[in-house]
Amino acid sequence: MSLPSSAALRNAESLYNHHGWLRGWLARRLDNAFDAGDLAQDTFVRILCAPAAAAEVREPRAYLATIARRLLLNHQRRASLERAYAEQLALMPSVEVPSAEQQVAILQTLQALDTMLAGLPPKVRAVFVLSQIEGLTYAAIADELGVGLRSVKRYAAQALVQCALLEGR
Fold first, then answer.
1. pLDDT tens digits, residue range 46-63?
2. Contact present, 54 and 97 (Cβ < 8 Å)
3. What pLDDT score does 119 carry?
């Protein structure tokens, strides 16, 4: 990663004047000042790392809110996934509960899979979930989605390519 240019730093500094507003905006949506502060900082890190950071921003609060909204959605999706995982752990007999290290690894894998699935087109995502999670055959998926068997195979291949790319990171 390269360092931001002096123009990018000046523009980021100008945007940083709105940090308090952004933190408040996020706090109202999260009901949590600590997470709001973290997400506000993540917003500015994202700005500094973006190639377009050198561009002058005409509507700073709208620009900040757009970036923060995306980070907020990711944060909420992660939190929802963590809650669902914790609920499933609570249902397990204590002798079967994975160790703390295993739980972290499983949660990281679930988050990576969730991110990958969120980036897939809807039909590709549906084929992946129906095939890999629900265990349906390609013929059953074709019937359920109202598409041809050839399309199901193509969608499954797309999803598996994304999984392979994810694993290669």
1. 888 876 655 677 898 999
2. no
3. 83
